[in-house]
Request: fold
Amino acid sequence: HRIKEAGVINVINVMKDIMSILEHLASEGVVTKDKIKKAQEQSRISSIPVDKILIKEGLISEEDIARVLASRLDIPFMDLKDYIIDADTIKYIPEKIAREKNIIPLFKLGNSLTVAVCDPRDIMAIDQVRLKSGLDVELVLATESAIKNAVEQLYGVSGTLDDVLDAMDKQKLIKMPDDISAKALEELAQE
Reply:
């Protein structure tokens, strides 16, 4: 029963954090308070988080939120788009943990492993990495989408054939003709 209560309290705290971050972005002129209120109304109807609505509408970016959160938590923000991750570091974080917890190893320096996370409050994920690696863990904050892309690059693409083809197309590894379906490719592969 206490775990359930802690989960509810955590959700409430995250929602308060998001609203506080959005208010900060409004004070900086990134988004208007009216747009935030409209997104709150949409959120109540759709159950989609307010920040996700604002991102989808292009009013704010994941980076906007991550930079404010990083500043508040006194954790460096890192844009992973052009960052080359040390491939030797994947041995410190199992793929399952990387995918489930949105955490990616960046580099090891001495007895310290620096990892990118999108939720630095996920103490359990950080402790899992610390225990699995046997190293001290240093955090940097990155966006969820940047971490997901980095996980795909380091650990490889997984999922359905459609997921794999989409990821390969996004990385420009292949160019799929518009008139071919995943089902057709599966049939060809079986032949």
